[in-house]
Design brief:
This protein is an alpha+beta fold and 468 residues long. Helix content is 30%, strand content 20%. Helix 7 packs antiparallel against helix 9 and helix 12 packs antiparallel against helix 13. The model has no long low-confidence stretch (mean pLDDT 94).
Length: 468
């Protein structure tokens, strides 16, 4: 595109809040993935679906790439901008437009923060179960684009399970409005599922219809300690049997995680005398009128009696519960405790998880004997987090070398290189570890069919040759 044509093209985006890249808020230059900042051609702030359509029509006409940005909390580089592209920010498309308390549905604009949706559901006496640490910043459109999960997946599933309908704008500017409010609708292809998890490469989501849940009357948390991972799995199986759908969280922390984080953050209220073994943070959400009316205490008592568990502490107050969760949520303080890290959010078959962690640990220590390697995860939904820090290397952590070791094992056990956050740019080189060639080929066919000029988030997930 010549400079004259580019100037006229960008000028035409003025009605949609266009700001040149150099003048736009610096937050638009990168997401949370840690990739180097990039100044885009400009940033545009459409306020509704029709304005998004006009933006994409303009950019198609001038063959200008478009990267959609929501709350910028993704860790895979999916919202990272391009020098020769326009950023489409959804921050002006914000708000809950409708709640149906009888059928339990909520309609919102894509730029609405997750916490705002949670609060709106709560005010209506209902519950939206997707919950992330970035709830105040991440947007519902981004949650859909990356199929976010969080701590409640074991009970409610990923984001796609909460979506009834959506509206999006396709790369040519046409509007696909599938704002379905029906719980049952078997009329041809379920097109929304194609957009959910597509990381902004197939369309720009503008509105969404969400399914809400009944709000539990009480939540009961407990932390347990056991000696082996086999006992962890026994606890998970027993909890599923005893609690059924009341089991809302099952977080497991390996011994090294507990020892590192509680030592590095002495203000954490650690509940046991000993720090050895695996630690399980388990949560029950129930509808009994009595706060302790669920079955968690009885469930864990049986495991104590059978010596599956060594220790159990039940939260007796909201503060106790917050203190237990603070140990799990101490992951936000890695920078303070360890410094620069190499982080992974992977999916592994739960039965192979302990063998996988030991194999990864051995492979990493063979090359970097002093490396700190921590494991924790949701486990009940096959999600494992791995954190690696090599002392003495500062910011020059061996990212690619460690990634190659970890993802090689993920491939071996048929796991996923991305349990959450998507593929983006960071995990693109390792997509083939989780997807067969035929699957990737079909993804490319779909991308070419909907976006033949490769203008929406080009280069993310996989590479395609530049169209003639």
């Amino acid at each position: 595109m010549s400079s004259t044509v580019a100037a006229e093209h960008l000028k035409s985006l003025g009605p949609f809040g266009f700001v040149s890249g150099a003048d736009a808020n610096v937050k638009h230059r990168q997401d949370w993935s840690g990739l180097p900042p990039t100044i885009p051609l400009g940033v545009v702030y459409p306020r509704n679906t029709q304005e998004v359509a006009h933006v994409l029509e303009h950019c198609l006409r001038h063959r200008t790439p478009v990267v959609t940005q929501g709350g910028l909390t993704g860790l895979a580089g999916g919202a990272h901008p391009m020098e020769q592209g326009v950023v489409l920010s959804t921050e002006k498309m914000r708000g809950v437009s409708h709640i149906d308390p009888v059928m339990g549905t909520l309609t919102a604009w894509a730029g609405t923060p997750l916490q705002e949706i949670q609060n709106a559901a709560d005010a209506a006496g209902l519950y939206f179960p997707i919950d992330l640490g970035s709830r105040g910043s991440c947007t519902i459109g981004g949650n859909l684009a990356t199929n976010a999960g969080g701590n409640k997946v074991i009970r409610y599933g990923m984001t796609r399970e909460q979506v009834l309908g959506l509206e999006c704008v396709l790369p040519d500017g046409s509007v696909l409005s599938s704002m379905n409010h029906l719980l049952k609708n078997n009329t041809g292809y379920d097109l929304k599922q194609l957009l959910i998890g597509s990381e902004g490469t197939l369309g720009v989501i503008t509105q969404v219809v969400l399914r809400l849940q009944a709000k539990p009357l009480h939540q009961q948390s407990a932390m347990c300690r056991c000696e082996t991972f086999e006992q962890v799995l026994h606890t998970l199986q027993h909890a599923r049997k005893c609690l059924g759908p009341a089991l809302s969280a099952f977080e497991v922390m390996w011994p090294e995680f507990i020892q590192c984080m509680t030592t590095g953050l002495p203000d954490l209220r650690y509940p046991f005398a000993q720090k050895e073994g695996f630690h399980i943070l388990i949560e029950e959400s129930h509808f009994s009128p009595l706060a302790n009316g669920g079955g968690l205490q009885h469930c864990l008592g049986e495991l104590l009696e059978s010596v599956v568990l060594c220790d159990v502490v039940m939260a007796q107050s909201e503060q106790d519960s917050q203190d237990l969760w603070a140990i799990r949520d101490s992951v936000a303080e890695y920078g303070k405790v360890l410094g620069p890290i190499i982080g992974f959010d992977i999916g592994l078959p739960t039965p192979t998880m302990e063998a996988s962690t030991q194999a990864m640990l051995a492979a990493i220590h063979q090359q970097w004997p002093k490396a700190v390697v921590l494991f924790f995860g949701h486990v009940g939904d096959c999600n494992l987090h791995v954190v690696v820090h090599v002392p003495g290397m500062g910011e020059a952590q061996p990212h690619h070398a460690v990634e190659s070791l970890v993802y090689a094992w993920v491939e071996k056990v048929q796991g996923s290189v991305s349990a959450e956050h998507g593929v983006g740019l960071i995990k693109k080189p390792f997509l083939s570890c989780s997807r067969q060639p035929a699957e990737i080929a079909l993804m490319k066919v779909i991308k070419r069919a909907l976006d033949p000029h490769h203008l929406l988030n080009p280069g993310k997930i996989f590479d395609l040759p530049t169209p003639a």
